## 1
Amino acid sequence: MRLSPILAIAYRDLLKFLRDPVRIVSTLIFPAIFIAILGGSFQANLGEDAGYNFLIFTFTGIFAQTLFQSSASGIISLIEDRENDFSQEIFVSPISRYAIIFGKILGESLVSIAQGLAIVALGVVMGIPMSGPQLLGLMVVAIAVCLFGGSFGVLVLSNLSSQRAANQVFPFIMLPQFFLAGVFSPIRVLPWYLDILSKISPMRYAVDLGRGVFYAGQPDYAKVVLRGVPFNIVVIAVMFTIFLVVGTWLFVRGERNR
Amino acid sequence: MQPIIQVDNLTKCYKNADTNAVDGISFTVAPGEFFTLLGPNGAGKTTTISILTTMLSPTSGTARIAGHDIVQEASAVRQNVGIIFQKPSLDLNLTAEENVRFHAILYGLYPFRPSFSTMPGAYQQQVHQLATILGIQAEIFKPVKTFSGGMKRKLEIIRSLIHRPRVLFLDEPTVGLDPVSRRNLWEYLTQVRTETDTTVFLTTHYLEEAEEADTVCIINKGRIVSYGPPAEVKAQLIEEYVLIDAEDREQLRAELLRLGALFSETPLFKVDLNGHNAHQLLKAIDTPLTVLQTHTPTLEDAYLAIVGRDDET
C-alpha cells in the first residue's frame, strides 16, 4: 500500500477542518458548556461530599469523550461523502479501500487532536492545574483515544447504509455512552444491569485511560480511576483490533455489493 | 481492433429489488469512439456506469475495460478510466489546485506534499498548463466554491484527464447547466476528444448531445432497445415520408401507382420515401400539388417512439 494517498486523504480532512471557523468554534462550545456548567455545578453542590474535584473529573471525561466521538463521527461522515463531493473521487481512484479507511482514521484523528489541544487550553483558562508531564500524558492518551474512536466509527459505518440511518443511529449509540462511560457522572457503583452496559461501552475505557494518566500519582487517583492504565490499554488494543478488522472487512465487502 | 470496452450480458439486480436495474446488456466500444448511452430516468444508465467503473459489483455477466476485467482487475480498470459524476465531485472548501493535486496523488502520479510550492516541478508546470487551458490562471489558487457551475465542470474534466485515462466516463455532465455553459462545455469536450484521442462514454437524456456521437445505445428498463450510429438508429426506427395532396386526387393516385411509390391515404397521400430522395419523387410527379409536407425524423422522434412503445408493452 502506498503512503502518499493515505497522507493526502488525511491532510484533506485536516485542511477542511482548519478552513472552517464555524466548525472549529462549534466543536468547542459543547465541551466548554459541559466542563464549565456541569462540572462547575456538580463541583459546587456535590464536590464536598464526593471528596474530589468535579471540575477536573468532568474535564478529563469530556476530553476523552470529545476525541473519541469526534473521530468516530468523522469516519461515519464517509457515508455522506460517498454520495457527495470529493470522496466520490477517492472511492473511484485506484487506491485500496484499506488505504481509504486508514487515511480517514488518520485524518479524523488529526482533527480530533486539534480539538483536544483546544480543550486543554480551555482547561488551563478555567484554572485546572496541569503539570508538564500531565499535559504530555494527555497528548499520548489523545492519540490512542482518537485511533480507538476511529476504529469504532469504522465498525458503525460498515453497518449503516445511508446518511439518514447514520443520523438516526449515531445519537443512540453515543448518548448512552456519555453516562455509561462516566464522562461527568461517577460510575464506581452501578446497578448490575447498568454495570454490564457500562462495561461494553468502548468509551468507558477511553475515559478511564485518560483519567488514569492524568491522575497518576495524585491523591484523588483511587477515588476517580476505575482500573489501571495497563488494563485499559489492553482492552482498548483488543477492541481497536476487532473493530478495525471486522469493520473494514464489512465495509469493503458492502461497498460494492449493493 | 481490440475494443476498449467490452460488455457481455451484464446484469445488475439491487438487493431487495424485484426487477433487474440492468438486464443482460452487451455492447462494445472501439478505442477513440464517442459512445452515448441514452435513456430516460431510471433506465439503468448510472448503474451501468457504476459497474463499468468498478464502483458496483455486477450480479452476473462480465465487462472488460482496456483489456482488464472489471471485477478481477478493478484497480487496473480504475487506473485507466476517468469519471465525471452526476453530482459534482470537487471539494468546495479546497482550492482548484488542491483538488487537482489530491487527484494526482491518489492516482500515484506524484508523492504527497503539503503545499503547491513543495510539489515537483513537473506537477507545477502541468497545473499552469491546465490553468491556461481553462483560462483561470488568476483563480487556480482560489476555493472552488467561488467558481461558476460551468467552470467547476471543466475543472472536473481537466482533473480527470491528468492521469491520462483511456476512457472518460461522463454521467449526465451537463445537467443543471445553463445553455451557454452547456455549449461551452461541449465545445471543450470535443476539443479534448480530438486532441487526446480519449474514448468518451457519455450518458445523457439530452438527445442533441447524443446526435453527435459515433454510436448511440438507447436503453430502457435495463435493456438495450436500439444500438448503432445515430443516423442508423433513426433510419431503423422512424420512417421518412412526404405528405402530398392535389385538387385532382384521382390523377395523383394514378401517377403514384404508375411510379410504383408506396403510399397510403390518410386522407392526404402519405408517400413512404423508403430511402429515396424526396426531390426525385416530387420531380416525377406532374399533377399540380396543393399540399406538400416532408417529414424527416430527429433522434428525438426515434427516442420517444422507442421509449413510448416500450411503455405500452
## 2
Amino acid sequence: MKTIMKKILFTLLTLVLFSTGEIKAQNSFFSLQYSMGFGMGDTKDFISPASFRGVGLEYRYFPEPAVGVGFETGYNLFYERKNYATYTQGAESLSGVQYRYIHFVPVLAAVDYYFIPDTKFNPFAGLGLGTLFSEKTIEMGVYNNTTDVWQFSLRPEIGVLFAAPGFDLIVAGKYFTAFKANDNPAQNYFAINLGILF
Amino acid sequence: MKHKIFALALLAGIGLFLGCTVQGPEYVDELDVVYSVYDQKYDFQNKGTYSLPDKIVKINGKTGDEIEYIKNEYAIPTLAQIDKNMTELGWTKVTENPDVQILPAAWTTTNISISGGYWGDYWCWWDPYYCGGGWYYPYPTYSSFTTGTMVISMVDPNKISTDDSREVVWFGAINGLFQGTYISNRINNAIDQAFTQSPYLNLK
C-alpha cells in the first residue's frame, strides 16, 4: 500500500511542479486536496474512528461554463486498534488485540454541474462513477489477513469553488459507495475534502 | 508563484501526514493470541475424567527417540495451570481410562501441519497407542502454527475412526508466549483464556 501512496504523491508533486501556476478555472483545473473520511455502514462496523489521513486529486474540463467533466482519484486510510476481545464464529474462537486497516483508492470518471459559473463563489453538485479499490487488513498477534478488492463505485458530491486572494479553493463533501460483490461487503464512507485549484 | 508555493506546502503537509505510520503493537503481550475450536457434536457433559502427561513435548519435526521436552521450569507451572482450569470446570484427573486425554505441546517449527496427526508419535513415550498412531479433526481448523505457539489437544481415546485415528474433540492454541520477554503471567492468562472462551467444557 505504501507503494500506491508514493505513486500518488509523486504524481501530485509532478503536477504541481510542472503546472504553469495560473488559475485556469474557466477552462479546466487540477485540484489537490486534503481529505478526511468518515466510515458509514459496513465500513464503520469494521473501523469506527474517522480517517484523517487522506488525499484527493481531481481534473475537470469545462465544455460548458456550468458543466465540468473529468476524473478523480485519491487515498484514505482508516485505522483502529481493537482492545483485547474474543471473536467467535461457529466452533472457533479467537482472542487477542486486533489492529484493523482499510486503504481506499477511488478511480472515478466525474461530471459536475456548477450553479453560478464565472463567479467567486460557485457551488456545484456532481456524480462520480468508476471503481473503488480497497485493501482491508486485520492484524492479530503475528498473523494477518488481507483482502484486496475492486468494487463498482458511485460517488455523489456537493461542494463549492471560491476565490481566495491569490488562489482558488475547493471544499467538497463526497459520499463514496462501493457495491457488494461476491463475498465482499459494500463499502461506504463520507469524505470532506479541502483543496486548491491550479 | 504564490499559488505554486501554497500547493507545494499543501502537498508537503499531506505527505508528512500520510508518512506518519499508524500505531502498531507497543508491547509484546499485545501479540498474544488464543485460538480454540471444538467438535460441536461432541457431548462434553457426559464426560468427567481427563489425563495429562507430566511433560510438554516440543514439536520440532523430529520423531522417535529424538523427542525433546520443554524445560521443567516452564512445563510444571503450565501443566499446573491446565490442571487448575480443568478442576475448576468440574473435571477429575485420572491416570487410567480417562474420558479424554489432554496433550500439550510447544511448537518450535513452522514446517509441520497439524492435519494428518502423524505428530501423535510425540506421545509414544506416554501412551503406546500414539506410536505410529494419529488423530483427526472433525472440523476445519488452522493448518499450521508459527514458532512460539503452545497447542493443547483434547483427544477422546474411545472415539476411533475407521482408519484407527482418535478424534481431537477440542483444540487450543496459544501464540506469542515463547517470543520476546518470557512472563509466566502471560502463559497463565493465556491458558485461562483458552478455557474461558470454551464454555462447553464446563461440567458444572
